[in-house]
């Protein structure tokens, strides 16, 4: 629970007056005092818990990487005990891939980020949403017109904030000459230590071209036959530990909807070869309304995570391309992107 101070009710005081005194709302006080069943009935001498201000944990910054994410997940799960962190697998280099559950409803929804290494700002967006959502639930607050308590109780949200930790680390911090993957990585990158254009995992495989949804068609389209910083689908579907972890994780759940967050283009892709359900159009329109992004039904692409989910489950799946510019997008764009995608985060839980 959040840290609290104690307030002793004085004669004539109301819960509204106490909340106003501390700069809070009545709902926040009620959430911190579940024993108060009727807000109009508080007694002189009664002791009330008053939540103190909670520090911000997830701070937008350049090079928000794996270590920062793991540290923030640890801090968030301690501050908000209803956040559950688990591991779905390990990367090529042995890093754990965390998954986060928040909410306890029967309906399951999944969001992920950083399939592509130089799109790491999507991790930051998901982590910030996790914090804002948890804080609103604990405080009994709405976000806009969304009743967070209601969403929390109806929906279990599962987030994989960083699918490709090795790749993100490479983009942000390069690679040490003493590391076991140095020679192979430098060969793939043609001797350059500039990894800003790197999308792949540490073995030079594009993780979002790895799924068994017409993978062979995507291989022919890409025409890549060797590991590369981007666009190489690998030697076979799900050849990489990260893509296998995501496939096994998805199969172990009953997701009603999935969204893969990427950058950039301010676009929402929602169809796959006519296999998407009719309701996907309605959901995409809702996303457009809250974000201003462009809705695109089909694109010449296969073997993506969203494609595979639609193909195998016939349920709504989306790829959301956040922001505009050249990857990796600068963190200076964070709040502008945030203002457009927070509605997508919330609508995805509500539909």
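Q: What amino acid sequence fits the structure above?
A:
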């Amino acid at each position: 629970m959040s840290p609290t101070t104690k307030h002793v009710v004085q004669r004539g005081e109301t819960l509204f007056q106490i909340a106003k005194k501390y700069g809070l709302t009545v709902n926040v006080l009620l959430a911190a005092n579940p024993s108060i069943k009727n807000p109009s009935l508080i007694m002189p001498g009664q002791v009330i818990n008053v939540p103190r201000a909670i520090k911000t944990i997830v701070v937008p910054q350049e090079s928000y990487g794996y270590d920062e994410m793991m540290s923030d997940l640890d801090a968030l799960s301690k501050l908000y005990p209803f956040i559950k962190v688990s591991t779905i697998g390990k990367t090529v280099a042995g890093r754990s891939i965390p998954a986060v559950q928040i909410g306890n409803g029967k309906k399951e929804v999944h969001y992920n980020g950083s399939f592509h290494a130089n799109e790491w700002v999507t991790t930051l967006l998901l982590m910030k949403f996790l914090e804002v959502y948890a804080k609103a639930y604990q405080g009994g607050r709405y976000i806009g017109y969304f009743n967070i308590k209601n969403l929390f109780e109806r929906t279990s949200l599962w987030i994989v904030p960083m699918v490709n930790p090795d790749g993100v680390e490479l983009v942000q911090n390069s690679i040490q000459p003493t590391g076991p993957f140095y020679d192979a990585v430098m060969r793939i990158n043609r001797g350059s230590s500039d990894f800003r254009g790197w999308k792949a995992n540490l073995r030079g495989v594009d993780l979002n071209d790895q799924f068994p949804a017409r993978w062979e068609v995507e291989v022919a389209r890409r025409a890549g036959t060797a590991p590369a910083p981007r666009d190489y689908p690998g030697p076979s579907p799900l050849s990489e530990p990260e893509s296998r972890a995501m496939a096994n994780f998805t199969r172990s759940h009953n997701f009603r909807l999935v969204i893969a967050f990427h950058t950039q283009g301010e676009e929402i892709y929602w169809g796959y070869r006519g296999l998407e359900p009719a309701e996907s159009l309605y959901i995409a329109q809702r996303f457009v309304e809250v974000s201003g992004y462009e809705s695109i039904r089909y694109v010449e692409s296969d073997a993506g995570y969203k494609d595979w989910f639609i193909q195998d489950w016939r349920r709504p799946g989306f790829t959301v391309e956040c922001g505009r510019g050249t990857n990796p997008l600068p963190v200076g764009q964070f709040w502008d992107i945030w203002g457009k995608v927070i509605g997508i985060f919330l609508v995805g839980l509500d539909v």
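Q: And what stands out in the fold?
A: The chain has a mean pLDDT of 95.
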